[in-house]
Write a structure and sequence with these properties.
The protein has ten helices and 20 strands. With 417 residues, it is α/β, with parallel strands linked by helices. It binds flavin-adenine dinucleotide. Keywords: Oxidoreductase.
């Protein structure tokens, strides 16, 4: 079957990979001139099954209210005259109950565990290099109340098979000696030995190359504008390439346009509750390898994640629900540099930090849309929010099974629209 994958981020490229392995004739279309040039470009690098607590949880509404007017708050909701933003916000509130949060954690842990296995198998099969490390993820807390609050989600995750252990500050420093200068601030931590880290851009671009070698066609520099349809079938995708309008035709289609999936879905009268949550990252050259971390870290108070990528360090975080703008807010970038430099002063050349911003395609529950839409030949693999890198291989392998009419090997509620 001919399948057109819309989007060449980590989700679109992994989708193309698993579909071509099933013997399909795959084409990928993207507006950029290469893969992974938007949200998959410089993310936090974590393959974190353990990071499955959704933003929507019982303590979220009070925290968001507190942060509403703080310019460097980790999560910023800037109310706009935007119906979709409000709809997303209201739906987010309905996801904040304990029952919904527990259900969403289960979904994310199951998908994450499956995905990490798929990534490991893909890595073994292809030998792709992407500065990956298998040293686990250490989530440290500098606030007692937050650490107390972490016990329950950690227990739920252990019950679900994700071995997230609660440890004390001394053990945290033993596992990652780079945290020694911050020992007195740390009140406790959790550690998940099976988690990993690596550069999502390097991975995606290397996999795109393997896809090409396997016969996948790439159409870059081409903007998807609209669809041609008849009843419940998609007949083609209208695109703009070098100023020329044309229609790309295929047997089936996969929507993996990150935050822009929602915008394109509306052209089909389909509502996907995906809203961009802008995040930032800094990438810093390692100065003193002895003082730089190897274990991937999560700083709970500042909601920052740290990954060592070869001779670079990536620190990422913060979320701004403020529409589709990718304007880089220096205050927020400098807040990341300040915190990271305070925690590990000798680790990096902090004054050489490169700043980046990207739009997480976020659903109110943090759970992505994976499955068939109500159009008979349109599939969805999108809305991966904070964990698109972690969930990419599993989502793509599962979608390829769904396309084949097979039941994916993971317990997850596959939802199209
Ligand atoms: C600051 C930050 C830190 C993060 N840290 C982590 C982390 O540590 N671990 C983790 O698992 N996840 C992390 N994420 C999330 C992860 O990066 C995303 O979930 C993931 O990159 C989404 O991939 P995607 O392929 O869906 O979207 P994208 O990478 O954005 O790909 C979508 C593609 O669609 C193309 N496109 C869009 N519209 C059109 C159009 N109209 N026509 C043609 N092409 C179009 C774009 O060019 C792009 O290539 C982080 C995100 C951010 C912002």
């Amino acid at each position: 079957m001919r399948i057109l994958v819309m989007g060449a981020g980590v989700v679109g490229i992994t989708t193309a990979w698993y579909l071509q392995k099933q013997g399909h004739e795959v084409t990928v279309v993207d507006r950029q001139n290469h893969s992974a040039l938007e949200t998959s470009y410089a993310n936090g690098g974590q393959i974190s099954v353990s990071h499955a607590e959704p933003w929507a949880n019982p303590s979220a509404p009070a925290k968001i209210l507190k942060w509403l007017f703080k310019p460097d708050a980790p999560l910023l909701y800037r109310p706009k005259a935007d119906l979709y933003q409000w709809r997303w916000g209201l739906s987010f509130l309905t996801q904040c109950t304990s029952a919904k949060a527990a259900h969403n954690i289960r979904q994310m842990v199951n998908l994450g565990t499956y995905s990490r296995c798929q990534l490991q198998a893909l890595r073994a099969e292809t030998g792709i290099e992407y500065d990956h490390l298998e040293k686990g993820i250490l989530h440290f807390y500098t606030n007692e109340a937050e650490f107390d609050g972490a016990q329950e989600p950690a227990r739920i995750m252990r019950d679900l098979g994700c071995d997230r252990q609660v440890i004390d500050a001394d053990r945290a420093v033993e596992l990652e000696p780079a945290l020694a200068p911050a020992r007195d601030r740390i009140v406790g931590a959790t550690y998940t030995a099976d988690d990993e880290s690596g550069d999502a851009r390097k991975f995606t671009q290397a996999l795109a190359e393997r896809c090409q070698q396997a016969g996948v066609e790439f159409i870059y520099g081409t903007e998807v504008l609209d669809f041609e349809r008849a009843g419940d079938r998609i007949l083609g995708v209208r695109v703009l390439q070098e100023g020329r309008h044309q229609t790309l035709r295929s047997d089936s289609y996969v929507l993996s346009l990150g935050s822009f999936s929602a915008v394109l879905a509306r052209k089909l009268g389909m509502f996907l509750n995906i809203y961009p949550a802008k995040g930032y990252s800094i990438t810093v050259p390692v100065k003193n390898p002895e003082a730089a971390f190897n274990v991937s870290l999560t700083d709970d108070e500042y909601k920052l994640v740290y990954s060592r990528l070869g001779d670079r360090m990536r620190v990422a975080g913060t979320a701004e629900l403020n529409g589709y703008t990718r304007t880089l807010n220096e205050t927020r970038c400098r807040a990341i540099v300040r915190r990271a430099a305070e925690m590990m002063p000798e680790a990096g050349y902090w004054d050489q930090a490169e700043f980046w911003t990207g739009l997480r395609p976020t659903t109110p529950s943090n759970v992505p849309y994976i499955g068939k839409s109500h159009f008979t030949n349109l599939y969805l693999n999108t809305g991966h929010g904070t964990l698109g890198w972690t969930h990419s291989c599993g989502s793509a392998a599962a979608l390829a099974d769904i396309v084949e009419g097979r039941r994916p090997g993971v317990e997850f509620t596959f939802s199209g629209v």
